[in-house]
Hints:
The structure holds 2 protein chains of 2 kinds. Chain A is of the alpha/beta class.
Amino acid sequence: MPDAMAELLSGARSDALSDAWSLLPTYLTPHIVLCAAALALGLLISLPLAVLAADRPRLRWPVLAIASLIQTIPGLALLALFYPLLLALSALTMRLFGFGIPALGFLPTLIALTLYAMLPILRNGVVGLNSINPAVVEAAEGVGMTPRQILMRIKAPLATPVIMAGVRTATVWTIGAATLSTPVGQTSLGNYIFTGLQTENWISVLFGCIAAAALALVADFFLNLIETGASERNSKRMMLGIAGLALGTFAGLAPLLSNEAATYTIGAKSFSEQFILADLMGDQLKAEGFGVTRKDGLGSAIAFRALAHNDIDVYVDYSGTLWRNVMGRTNTPSREAMQAEIVRWMKAEHGVTVLGALGFENAYVLAMKRERAQALSITSIADLARVAPQLTIGDDLEFLGRPDWASLKSVYGLSFKTRRSFNPTMMYHAVDAGEVDVVSAFSSDGRIAALDLLVLADSKHAIPSYDALILIAPNRAADARLKRALVPLIGAIPVEAMRAANLTVDRDTDKASPKEAARVLAKAVHLRSR
Amino acid sequence: MTALPISNSSVSVPCIEIDAVSKSFDGGRSFAVSNVSLDVKQGSLVAVVGGSGSGKTTLLKTINRLVDPDAGEVRIDGVPVSEAEPPTLRRGIGYVFQGIGLFPHMRVAENIAVTLGLLGWPVHEIETRVTEMLDMVDLPQDYARRFPHTLSGGQRQRVGVARAIAARPRIVLMDEPFGALDPVTRDGLGSSYRALHDRFGMTTLMVTHDIQEAALMADRIVVMKDGHVLADETPHTLMTGSDDPDVAALMEVPRRQAERIAALMTENRPVHA
């Protein structure tokens, strides 16, 4: 991305860069906490295991094999695997002991990263302990040391340089892999990368990469001091390394220690509108003096479960999504009947509060380039169904798997020649370039107007309405302060305002960050700003 | 160093008794040590001589329980060593290795003090003792802060001897103690050790492959081959003849060398064997 690099270097996009800087404490602190905890836990498990395995070939082989196997699982998959696992475990503990385990965020990430950190420490531990001259060990026995004294006074110091080399490898891996924790709801430097990818904000992506690399380099520098200090028996050098690491960790933790009292966790799915709305709600809460943490980039299915389990306190979801995907309904009642039923069902089944609708709809719609639609004389989905077998549809990785598509297919008898899937941004590029004829657009998307797309009329009401609703977690159901802070948003955002805000983030040039877009949106709809 | 741990009257009492000891490392197919009995008197320096595989090192290790025998018994002052916990037993017995026995990550002073620390000596007494030991083995005091790899082979072995005898053990075991050293250093160290041995009335069992070293240092020489004892005599008796052909051949080496050197000194011309 040479353009982005040039932008970053020239400082032409200083607003995006200063946005990124302002987020650094928010992202860096949990990143450091996460990595330090995973490495500490990794050391705590791996070192005793290495000591046991070093003397026992029968244990050594399976232990190292399992550790290597874990290493071959891609980091993102390993993180994702712990979500359903912990969810099941949480259900079990809930039934047995009456409390659940958080399945999102810190815990699954910590477990995955700890497993990841174990192999290099374990392998170097075993190698380090086994490469000690046996004559030295026999001398230690000869002067009357107990096995424990031999381990602590002879083997441990002699193996330290090799073990430290393993710890360095583990540290660099962990700091890198921790950026993958964003999709499971753990805030980290990965938030720069994932939100940057979603909103095509390359400065944010680069910033995240550079920040993670810099953190890894700094940690490696101090660990190197400890390693060389240990091998040269230079205790000053070792202490310098340890002091550096301790100081760095403490500096990273400082914002955490000086935290405000009440904090709310706002969730967001992985697209621009969600980021903007999360920032908008965050600004409202901050204006009331509350602290805010974020869990961004949650998968569509994960977000609601996270709320129902109190892993997040509030987020915005859409009535149609809840109706079809969460509640499993297949009929399409009127807008009012649907909302009333959602409110009732949420309370009854999950204790979730529907605070209200924001005022706009983000429905799935089918859209085409206007001139292409005119050339084919298409204005509605019914028209489309006639020529669809000769056309190609592009979707956003989700649509063709949703009940909406099944409903469209059965109501209109739709069937296309080819289907292609893209991430949302690429999907719009594809329809603009004519690579696909029809796309599953979002009704609040600013690019519908910007790209001059025609939204095809759903005259048979195959797709339900998708009103944006603010949902509140069961634990916060009685939290009047939270509700008071968010109520001004209810009914306040017309679809035009949302489209304009989305466009400033989604367009290719002169992009704004979600944070900026939220501020502009707040002003546009006359919300009280900070 | 003050009071000697034993009185002269007990000199003839066996200090170490090795009683019909056997050891096999392959489940009984072959024996590294086979039914060996040996008494070491209080205050004596006994050398066990033999080639590699003769079982001499295994025999030595049964005394501080680095090796436990399959059959037979080792006693110190009449008490079976098997009754003592190995670490406790070993702290009371000096043990000298070939050069590599020093701990590479510890300074000279720490190496010398290692047994004292294990025995729980107070810190100031340890410091005094380390200073004393450096003097005793003729090493400069400023060597205390150096690491073993900065020392020559001879200096390292002096540290090894200092470490072995720092806690004033009554018994010292030596495994090829001076084997890797050049002849001059080796002779010097051998004589120094013998002097220390006599001065503190220690009882020493030394394993060596070098018959000349054994003949010049020891009160008694035990010759081993294939796990058996071939001879157990004073150096004088061995040098003047043995019935066993292997022992006779072994003793022939230093005797012929001594004759050739004597000839060199009187006739002032090269002597060929």
